[in-house]
UniProtKB/TrEMBL annotation:
Signal peptide start-end: none
Name of encoding gene: recX
Keyword set, alphabetical order: Cytoplasm
Lineage: Bacteria, Pseudomonadati, Pseudomonadota, Betaproteobacteria, Burkholderiales
Keyword set includes Cytoplasm: yes
InterPro entries assigned: RecX_HTH_2nd, RecX_HTH_3rd, Regulatory_RecX, WH-like_DNA-bd_sf
Localization per record: Cytoplasm
Superkingdom per UniProt: Bacteria
Domain RecX second three-helical: 71-108
All residue ranges annotated as the RecX third three-helical domain in the record: 117-160
Function as written in the Swiss-Prot or TrEMBL entry: Modulates RecA activity.
Species in which this protein is naturally found: Ottowia flava
PANTHER family documented for this protein: REGULATORY PROTEIN RECX FAMILY PROTEIN
Protein name: Regulatory protein RecX
Family membership noted in the UniProt record: Belongs to the RecX family.
Length: 179
């Protein structure tokens, strides 16, 4: 009678626990992209409860990185794709830093986002408000909303100028600002 892989793992000392850590890491990765630092934090918590040491977590993370399951570039791309449509550069970059991504990847994402911030800010403004502010109080409220979403002051000012100028009259509301 052939033995099952589970019973083989149980015969090796420490194998079941490392498989458990690896299985947990793969479960996290199957839900969404995680940076190495995020997985380190989550698995360290789990390993402490299971009586594992930090070296076991490091071995699992090294193995997953070597196999390409953990990719900092994919994490950045995923965050930018999911969040850039609703948030400004500052908030997206804050999320990337919170995930423990290296500075070079964060800077690459910043360059990518910088090119589209005005258009994204205008799209967020149009979805939320859609019409120019009626008075100064409304203008301030709209500006605070965009600033709270992480858009730069310059982008907020350009959106408000475009909104009061009448964006419906032009096909590209930011063409004049770029000249």
């Amino acid at each position: 009678m052939a033995s099952s892989p589970a019973s083989d793992a149980a015969k090796r000392p420490g194998a079941a626990r490392s498989l458990s850590l690896k299985g947990r890491a793969l479960r996290y990765l199957s839900a969404r992209e995680h940076s190495r630092a995020e997985l380190q934090t989550k698995l360290a918590r789990y390993a402490a409860e299971a009586g594992e040491d930090a070296q076991a977590v490091a071995r699992v993370l090294d193995e997953l990185t070597a196999k390409g399951f953990i990719s900092e570039a994919r994490v950045a791309e995923s965050v930018v794709h999911r969040r850039a449509g609703r948030l400004g550069n500052a908030r997206v970059l804050q999320e990337l830093r919170a995930k423990g991504l290296p500075d070079d990847i964060v800077q690459g994402a910043a360059e990518q986002l910088r090119a589209t911030e005005d258009e994204r800010a205008y799209a967020v403004w149009a979805r939320k408000f859609g019409r120019p502010p009626a008075d100064l109080a409304e203008r301030a409220r709209q500006m605070r909303f965009l600033a709270g979403r992480g858009f730069s002051g310059a982008s907020v000012a350009r959106v408000m100028r475009t909104a009061t100028r009448g964006a419906d009259e032009r096909s590209d509301p930011f063409a004049a600002d770029l000249e």
